Amino acid sequence: MDTLASVSTPTLAQVVAVLDELYPPAWAEDWDRPGLVCGDPDAPVEHVLLAVDPVDVVVDEAIETGAQLVLAHHPLLMRGTSTVAANFPKGRVVHRLIREGVALFTAHTNADSARPGVSDALARVVGLVDLEPLVPASHDATLGLGRVGRLEPPLPLRAFAEQVAQGLPATAGGVRVSGDPDAIVERVAVCGGAGDSLFADVRAAGVDAYVTADLRHHPASEAREQAPGIALVEVSHWASEWPWLHGAAERLTAHLASLGLSATTTVSTRSSDPWSFHVPSPSETTR
């Protein structure tokens, strides 16, 4: 039997159905807005570009590579809006996508809660095993936000931070650390994206370190005061979520194949990290 002859190109509606099965909208937080943003459900999808942010440089890449669909982690229209006029950045993205025939689908906190999800990918690239949710979902304790795992082998904090930096894409901000550089790290919590709302859960998890992004001054300071034994490892928001894209691409391809459908998937090579460069403090090189 010639199996290649039975493989066909999916429509956007078929790809969306697969994505909704992989990352059910019901798993998203109440405030979130994942799903299909624009696109013709009947249009064929031969090429899917996966990216963290639906921004201009990603749209450029989608057009250049001939993608018919951008699968992004972050929603484009998170809050209510009364206009998508092209003289506003988000409106310009919508106009460009529609004009070029490129659909946009986003999987946000539903992809965070999924297993494997965003934090699973982050945990794996920084060296963790035996993963479990940091904040189990009420409907299924195997799902939820963040992950807790074991670092194998255990490492001093400085060495662990260096391993984190090596596992993630390079960014201008690099990796910032709060804690004793010689303290041994074995049990670790991670949360892809902004994670300072989960400090109480991190303390309850009894970890040695917490890897996340976007740590604000006061929550971070208070977290260290309340639990000085828990080191903080802060990374770029974009970098912390980027590892998920590869696994999402593989799962989408495999699920389509099981339905006799085929589409090329590509992970974006364009950084949407907002920071351009880093200037070391004069004493930084002596630390």
UniProtKB/TrEMBL annotation:
<dbReference type="GO" id="GO:0005737">
    <property type="term" value="C:cytoplasm"/>
</dbReference>
<dbReference type="Pfam" id="PF01784">
    <property type="entry name" value="DUF34_NIF3"/>
</dbReference>
<comment type="subunit">
    <text>Homohexamer.</text>
</comment>
<comment type="similarity">
    <text>Belongs to the GTP cyclohydrolase I type 2/NIF3 family.</text>
</comment>
<feature type="binding site">
    <location>
        <position position="73"/>
    </location>
    <ligand>
        <name>a divalent metal cation</name>
    </ligand>
</feature>
<feature type="binding site">
    <location>
        <position position="237"/>
    </location>
    <ligand>
        <name>a divalent metal cation</name>
    </ligand>
</feature>
<dbReference type="InterPro" id="IPR036069">
    <property type="entry name" value="DUF34/NIF3_sf"/>
</dbReference>
<feature type="region of interest" description="Disordered">
    <location>
        <begin position="267"/>
        <end position="287"/>
    </location>
</feature>
<feature type="binding site">
    <location>
        <position position="74"/>
    </location>
    <ligand>
        <name>a divalent metal cation</name>
    </ligand>
</feature>
<feature type="binding site">
    <location>
        <position position="241"/>
    </location>
    <ligand>
        <name>a divalent metal cation</name>
    </ligand>
</feature>
<keyword id="KW-0479">Metal-binding</keyword>
<protein>
    <recommendedName>
        <fullName>GTP cyclohydrolase 1 type 2 homolog</fullName>
    </recommendedName>
</protein>
<feature type="binding site">
    <location>
        <position position="112"/>
    </location>
    <ligand>
        <name>a divalent metal cation</name>
    </ligand>
</feature>
<dbReference type="GO" id="GO:0046872">
    <property type="term" value="F:metal ion binding"/>
</dbReference>
<dbReference type="InterPro" id="IPR002678">
    <property type="entry name" value="DUF34/NIF3"/>
</dbReference>
